[in-house]
Design brief:
The structure is a homodimer of 284-residue chains. Chain A is of the alpha+beta class. Chain A folds into two domains: 64 residues, Arc Repressor Mutant, subunit A (Orthogonal Bundle), CATH 1.10.10; 181 residues, Chorismate lyase-like (Chorismate lyase). In chain A, 27% of the residues lie in helices and 29% in strands. Chain A contains ten helices and ten strands. In chain A, the strands form three sheets. In chain A, strands 4-5-6-9-8-7 form a six-stranded antiparallel beta sheet. A two-stranded antiparallel sheet of chain A has the order 1-2. A two-stranded parallel sheet of chain A has the order 3-10. In chain A, strand 1 and strand 2 form a beta hairpin. In chain A, helix 1 crosses helix 3 and helix 2 packs across helix 3. Chain A starts with 11 loop residues before the first helix and ends in an 18-residue tail after the last strand. In chain A, 33% of the residues are buried. Chains A and B meet through helix 1, helix 3, helix 4, strand 7 and strand 10 of A and helix 1, helix 3, helix 4, strand 7 and strand 10 of B. Chain A binds a DNA duplex (19 and 19 nucleotides) through helix 3 and strand 2.
DNA sequence: GAGTGGTCTAGACCACTGT
DNA sequence: CAGTGGTCTAGACCACTCC
């Protein structure tokens, strides 16, 4: 059993992957189309089936195709992503001063997860944990200080798949003035986190949100019902009060094939009498 | 050559991957540490080398390990990500009305890519292209209208690897008042895009930035010098003028192991005399 | 030169899908 | 049932790194 020398510099499985990728990106193979079977590709490229499988593995890892037992591999349908808008923090802040009835119109969970509450199983879990080194640094508090960790999860009942997941941290010291804030049965809280903080005398000054992307593990993929080749978006939001103190940190995870994060930045107007640009003056 | 039946329900290569993943995440195997060699794992799990290779492929695709020819596989060192701050749009807008000397302190390229200009090869390319269906929709203009496409790329000279890449689109109709805006030799433009738009009478009202993540193709990975298992962050920024018209669209790509996107949202203060929360009243 | 991981082959059994 | 892809084996050659 000798391996024939590669015809080119590029390994054969990469050649196959490149060829198929090109045919997908050029539109010759359209979303939902069946790929050639492994047997057919094996014959076309005169190679062992393992090589073809390797090539398909590459495309699967790039999120371009899906394959499962018994069925032919197909071109992945490009995802339709739900837009997750941020920029409602100001609205949320103004709401905190409004009466309870008005606040009740928007739940805390919805604000955090961005998913409307319907036909899903929400889970909320509160826990007091010692601050890790990382979180202690975020809050500028000693390592091991008490943190209130609040976990929000939403699950799709039929498949059991996770739809949203986020964790929020608050130093217990900041909220011990209002025992209700440590009581998970009080969720969802009318007016959300901004109002919760208002009840202990905290006024928010700004939010800082950072976004990274990671590749989920096989276990993650199973929990979320994700296919191979789909990254995970992870956000960390710092809620900062008007004294520049970090009062809450919240982490959230989003499957990148279902989610698009949208951030808006509104600008103030120039003064009415601002100088108009004069091309003749050549002020470039 | 018979395949022994799997000892459990889980395929062996997943069992091996899970075991190694756990040892990495628990800290038993630390960043930079060598993994057991394929031969050792093969013996430990009494399986063929192909199964072990498959398992390592899984971990590589998750970005947990790196491996190359001749050297033992190692645990990937967690990336240090450069923070890419947004939220300077207001500052940039105010700068547009300032004198040239002041504007010249910040280049257009730097504003777009977030990478300081030093020891890199910047490339700027202008091109007039017909609007695709997608872009026509963004601008609410007829398909096929003239767009000015400006491509910004920065390359690391030694490795030839791409450091940053972004493309901006502007309807030619909007900028024909100033021919310099179609001249790529005028880059970098003092004061950046905001000032460029100012020269044709456009005042910006807001920015809308959306973020998605995708898995790069093998070719992308080579161009950017990325390892397997690292996703790509992609942003699309709409520049919207004070009349709610989309005047510029800009796409940018960032390797997710080197980049963290940071968005800030500043809130206005509550009025001085806002009602203080009264726990006794129990207004929850 | 010994040891590492990368590529490839040929053959086998299995789980699942459709008819 | 035939056909699909998923898993596994055993053996081979190759490219590369390090001693």
């Amino acid at each position: 059993m000798r391996a024939e020398p590669a015809t080119g510099v590029l390994p054969v499985h990469h050649q196959i992957a490149n060829d198929l990728r090109e045919r997908i990106q050029s539109g010759e193979l359209r979303p939902g189309d069946r790929l050639p079977t492994i047997g057919a590709l094996q014959q076309a490229w005169s190679c062992a089936d393992g090589v073809v499988r390797e090539a398909l593995g590459v495309l699967r890892a790039e999120g371009l195709i899906t394959s499962s037992r018994g069925k032919p591999s197909t071109v992945r349908t490009p995802p339709t992503r739900a837009k997750l808008w941020t920029g409602f923090a100001q609205e949320q802040k103004d709401l905190a001063l409004r009466p309870r009835a008005e606040r009740a119109k928007r739940g805390a969970i919805e604000m955090i997860s961005g998913v409307p509450i319907e036909e899903v199983i929400p889970t909320t879990r509160y826990e007091i944990i010692p601050a890790s080194a990382e979180l202690a640094k975020e809050f500028s508090i000693p390592e091991g200080s008490d943190l209130c960790q609040r976990t929000y999860e939403m699950t799709e009942p039929k498949s059991g798949h996770r739809l949203s997941f986020s964790i929020s941290y608050i130093p217990v010291e900041l909220i011990h003035g209002n025992p209700d804030l440590l009581d998970e049965t009080k969720e969802p809280w009318p007016g959300g986190h901004t109002h919760q903080l208002y009840t202990v005398g905290i006024e928010l000054g700004k939010f800082v949100r950072s976004v990274i992307a990671e590749q989920p593990t096989a276990g993650d993929r199973q929990r979320w019902g994700m296919e191979e080749g789909i990254p995970m978006l992870r956000t960390r939001t710092q809620s900062i009060d008007i004294n520049d103190r970090v009062v809450e940190v919240s982490d959230a995870w989003y499957p990148a094939d279902r989610t698009e994060l949208v951030f808006t930045e509104t600008l103030t107007r120039w003064p009415e009498d601002h100088p108009r640009f004069d091309l003749e003056k050549g002020d470039l």
